[in-house]
Write a structure and sequence with these properties.
Rossmann fold, 2 domains, eight-stranded mixed β-sheet
C-alpha cells in the first residue's frame, strides 16, 4: 500500500504523536509499504520554521504552510497530495480530519480514511463549550466519513464510542520507542523524573509541592523535569522550587533527544506524573519500558498498565497526606525491591512493542484499502 501519514507536527518536534508517526512509518516501510508524512512547516507553539529536510530516517516528509490558531491550524494544501496514495491515515483531531471528510463529500478525493484519536480534544477544560459543540455537530459528521477510528486506550475508546459506531472503532495503544527498553543506566537513589510538556496542564507544580512535603526527610532527593517549555512555565516552577527551599533539588533540563531522554529516565528511582488528563500516557509507558516504577494519576492508559505496588502506584495528583505517604514508601524501598519492580515494569510494557503495534495497524489500514477497492 501507499500510505499518507498526516500529522500537525513531526520531527524535529518531539512528542507522543511525533514518535508514534515515526515509529509506525518505519514499521510499515519494513513490511513493504510506501509511506510518506505530510505535516506543518512551523512549530505551532513558537511559529519557528522547522527543519525542511525532505526525509526523516528515510521517511519522505512534505511540509506545508498554514494559517489560523495553533489549536486548529488550517492547511488545505495537504489535499493536493492524496491522489498519490491508497490510504490516508490522520493522527489527531483537528482540521485534517474535517477537511478530509469535506473533500470526500465534495468528491475532491475518494480515498479511505483512518483516524487515530490520540486522546481527542478534552485534554483541558479550556474552551469547553466550544469543544462540546464541535464534538457533537462537526466531528461526529467528519468521523462518519472515516473507514476506521483508532482509539489509543480503553478510556479513549469509551469517549469516542458516543460518536463512532462500534464496527468502526478499534483500540490500538501507542508503541514505545525501542531505545527505552534498550538503554541501561545505573539507578540513582532519590532521583525522581517527570517527562512531558512543561505546562500548567501537566500540574507539575503539584509534584514540586509533594516533594516539598518530604524534602527534609531525604537528603538525596532530586526532581528532574524534562520536556519542551510552554509559555514560560519553567520560570514559574523554578520560583516555586526556590520558595520551598528546593532550588538545588529541582532541575529543569528542557527538551532532550530520545536517547538522552531514555538515559535520564532509566537512571531514575521513580517516574512521576500529576497530569489530570492524558490521551494515552506515552511517557509513563516509556518509563515502565526502561524498568522504572511509576507514581501516576489514573488517566489515559495508566489504569490498564499500572499495578499498585507491583510496578508503581496511583495518586490523585494532589499533594495530600495519602500522596505524601505513598511517595515516602516508594523512596524507602530497598534496591532489592526496586529490582523486582523493575522486572515487573518491563514486563508490563512488553505489549507496546512497535512490531506488535505495527502489525495491528497494518490490518486496519489494509481492511480500509480493501473496502475502498472492492
Amino acid at each position: 500500500m501507499r500510505i499518507l501519514q498526516v500529522a500537525r507536527q513531526f520531527y524535529p518536534k518531539i512528542g507522543g504523536i511525533e514518535s508514534c508517526v515515526l515509529n509506525l512509518s518505519r514499521g510499515l516501510v519494513a513490511r513493504g509499504h510506501d509511506v510518506e508524512v505530510v505535516t506543518l512547516d512551523r512549530d505551532l507553539r513558537t511559529r519557528r520554521l522547522l527543519d525542511g529536510r525532505a526525509e526523516i530516517q528515510s521517511i519522505p516528509v512534505k511540509r506545508i504552510s498554514y494559517f489560523g490558531p495553533r489549536r486548529y491550524p488550517i492547511a488545505p494544501s495537504w489535499l493536493r497530495f492524496v491522489d498519490d496514495f491508497d490510504v490516508i491515515h490522520i493522527h489527531g483531531i483537528d482540521f485534517f480530519i474535517d477537511s478530509a471528510a469535506l473533500g470526500k463529500a465534495l468528491r475532491v478525493h475518494r480515498k479511505p480514511i483512518v483516524v487515530t484519536t490520540h486522546g481527542g480534544i478534552f485534554h483541558t477544560a479550556a474552551w469547553l463549550p466550544v469543544k462540546k459543540l464541535y464534538w457533537r455537530h462537526v466531528l461526529r459528521r467528519s468521523l462518519a466519513s472515516a473507514n476506521a477510528v483508532i482509539a489509543v486506550s480503553d478510556r479513549d475508546a469509551s469517549l469516542f464510542s458516543s460518536i463512532v459506531p462500534p464496527h468502526k472503532l478499534a483500540t490500538i495503544p501507542n508503541g514505545i520507542d525501542p531505545v527505552f527498553s534498550q538503554v541501561r543506566d545505573s539507578r540513582v537513589r532519590g532521583r525522581i523524573v517527570s517527562v512531558g510538556r512543561v505546562s500548567t496542564a501537566k500540574a507539575i507544580d503539584q509534584i514540586i509541592q509533594l516533594l516539598a512535603n518530604l524534602a527534609g526527610e531525604f537528603q538525596d532527593l532530586e526532581l528532574v523535569i524534562a520536556g519542551p517549555d510552554e509559555n514560560g512555565a519553567s520560570d514559574s516552577l523554578r520560583r516555586q522550587a526556590a520558595a520551598h527551599g528546593m532550588k538545588a533539588i529541582v532541575r529543569i533540563v528542557g527538551e532532550l533527544s530520545p536517547f538522552e531522554l531514555a538515559r535520564l529516565v532509566a537512571s531514575a528511582s521513580l517516574f512521576i506524573s500529576a497530569a489530570p488528563h492524558e490521551g494515552f500516557g506515552i511517557t509513563t509507558a516509556e518509563a515502565l519500558s526502561a524498568g522504572v516504577p511509576v507514581l501516576v494519576t489514573p488517566t489515559g492508559i495508566h489504569e490498564q498498565i499500572v499495578q499498585p505496588r507491583v510496578n508503581g502506584w496511583f495518586w490523585s495528583g494532589h499533594p495530600d497526606a495519602d500522596a505524601t505517604a505513598t511517595l515516602r514508601q516508594a523512596l524507602l524501598l530497598p534496591d532489592a525491591r526496586l529490582d523486582e519492580m523493575q522486572i515487573a515494569a518491563r514486563k508490563s510494557a512488553a505489549p507496546f512493542d512497535w512490531n506488535l503495534i505495527t502489525e495491528r495497524y497494518e490490518r486496519v489500514l489494509e481492511s480500509a484499502y480493501r473496502t475502498s477497492v472492492g
